[in-house]
Amino acid sequence: MTSRRSCRLKVPDGNDLVEAELVYELSKDDLVQAHLDWAPVRLEALRRLHESHRPWPEHWHWDWSKKAQMLDLLAYRCMGIECEGHFQGLMMVSTLAVKGRLASQLGKPVLYIEFLENAPWNLRSLAGKPQFIGVGIRLLEAAIEFSDNEGFGGRIGLHSLPQSENYYRKYMTDLGLDAKQSQGLRYFEMSTEQVLHFIERR
Amino acid sequence: MPDQSIRRTMTLNLTDAEMRALESLSIQKDLSKTAVIRQALRLYQLVDRRLSNGEKLFFEDKAKREKAELMVMI
What we know:
The structure holds two protein chains of two kinds. By secondary structure, chain A is an alpha+beta fold. Chain A has helices at residues 28-51, 64-67, 124-127, 135-149, 165-169, 192-201; strands at residues 4-10, 17-23, 76-83, 86-99, 109-118, 156-160, 173-177, 186-190. Chain A is globular, with a radius of gyration of 17 Å. The A-B interface holds A 1, 3, 5, 22, 24-25, 72-75, 95-97, 107-109, 145-146, 148-153 and B 1-6, 29-32, 35, 38-39, 41-43, 45-46, 49.
């Protein structure tokens, strides 16, 4: 049985909220379906960006159907936000704890977010005006819940693409460029204290 | 917790030494004993899959300039 809970997303132009569902464990079929939904929209948006000589999102090449095989392993879990019959955002986490790097939680277990992506129609860089707002926040909440449930104290960490650094800097601590990471990305971590603050202000 | 993944309970029979190792890891890693066992299972499955796919697992000590392949996974 798929485990779900309700959540809400914002719509632009006003304070209207729409009902959505957080799906805690996505199947390989879910990822393939999301890819089939997202790919044509993404391609069309990229074509428009190309024609107008605007930069592409750094993750334009992500293909969730290719990540589906990772779900054969207990070490990976995918979650998603579903609304109006489509996935509005997807996230893959590693269920193998990583060591905390923040001084306040050095060596303590942290849930590592491998990938987090909004549907292409929710990205300002692709769609202009997003269909739904708050998908990233809902997914970060899900990661915190999962981390807590795993006994990791709600602590989460991730490497951010440069275009998303300012977003994560709002909620997490920027621990700088990670020379050991294959792409040399910056590493961000959310401490237990930041988790509490994040939950209070959501 | 809203994540309602079905969980099953089992009894685990460990020797004193194994229980001490589990307790030690539990304290050291700041995880419950159940969480340690779950981490171990996930890691075992991941390593086993990659070894089955023909990849190799090495431990490296840069200071001693030693690199040893892990051969014990069955």
